[in-house]
Amino acid sequence: MRDLGKFLMILGAVVLVLGTILWSGFAPRWLGRLPGDIRIEREHGAFYFPIVTCIVISIVLSLLMSIFRR
C-alpha cells in the first residue's frame, strides 16, 4: 500500500504542475486547435470538442507510460 500512496502523491504533483503551466498561458498555441477538432460557434453560444487533441494526448501518454513501465 505504501507504493500506491507514493505513486498517487507523485501523480498528483505532476498533474498540479502541468495544470499550473497550462493555466498560466505557457501552453503551446496548437494545443486544442488541431485540424479535426470540432468547433461550432453560433450567435447565442458555442460548442467546442477537441477530439483530435484528445487522441494525440492519449497516444503520447500511452507511449510515455509504456516507456516508464519497462
Spatial separation of the terminal alpha carbons: 21 Å
Mean pLDDT, to the nearest integer, reads: 86
Strand content: 5-15%
State the strand order across the main sheet.
Answer: 1-2
Instruction: Catalogue the unreliable spans.
Output: none
Instruction: Compute the CA-based radius of gyration.
Output: 16 Å
* Number of beta-strand segments: 2
Helix content class: 55-70%
String of helices and strands: HEEH
Task: Please tell me what the overall shape is.
Answer: elongated
Number of helices: 2
Secondary-structure-based class equals mainly alpha
Largest sheet report: 2 strands, antiparallel
Give descriptors for this structure.
single chain, 70 residues, mainly alpha, two-stranded antiparallel ribbon, 60% helix, 11% strand, elongated
Q: Describe it for me?
A:
This protein is mainly alpha-helical. The chain has helices at residues 2-24, 51-69, and strands at 38-41, 46-49. It contains two helices and two strands; from the N terminus they run H-E-E-H. It has a two-stranded antiparallel sheet with strand order 1-2. Strand 1 and strand 2 form a beta hairpin. The protein starts with a helix and ends with a helix. The model has no long low-confidence stretch (mean pLDDT 86).
Secondary structure: elements and pairs:
Blueprint: H1 2-24, E1 38-41, E2 46-49, H2 51-69
Antiparallel strand pairs: 1-2
Q: What's a concise summary of this model?
A:
The protein has 70 residues and is mainly alpha-helical. Helices cover 60% and strands 11% of the residues.
